[in-house]
Amino acid sequence: MAVMNPVWPITALYFGPIGLWAYYALGRAARPQSAKMSGHGGHHHHGESDQPFWVSTFVGSTHCGAGCTLGDIIAEFLVFFTGATFVGSTFGTELVLDYLFAFTLGIAFQYFSIAPMRGLGLKDGIIAAVKADFLSLTAFEVGLFGWMALMRFVFSDPHLHPDSPVYWFMMQIGMIIGFATTYPMNWFLVRAGLKEVM
Length: 198
Prior knowledge:
The protein is an all-alpha fold. The protein has 6 helices and no strands.
């Protein structure tokens, strides 16, 4: 699936060596089977996979995490460099923009996996992508935002900013927590038939 090409490098941004291991052990391992299927003119049907379910769920969670992570990185730098604030709160602005960018990119990532697999047009593809990704990306952001609140109000004094490597190290931890909170949601969504097996 072409959309996974940017997903794995983004996953490695926050998962580090674990992301690299996952790519070789779980991402690349699935390729020969997929290639074999497409070589016979066939594709996986909705809900089918040659992988164990936990692997499909893990890969689906990386897909969700990539959109969220990319959106969060863009939003954090945007707030930092522009000094934008809503109702006088920089932290509130970060959370709102993080979610909006994560939502937009998460839906785009999901659209480019669902629409080709189901043969959907633009409108139906976007609706399906929202159904598939709204809850999973929200679950990711809940974990990340909880950690960001701890970063801001408990762990760092003075507050860290995106121009600090320590800030991004702490954000990496938050993104891993976000992955942990989105994994069970992805499990549920795939089981419920709302999200494609990756």
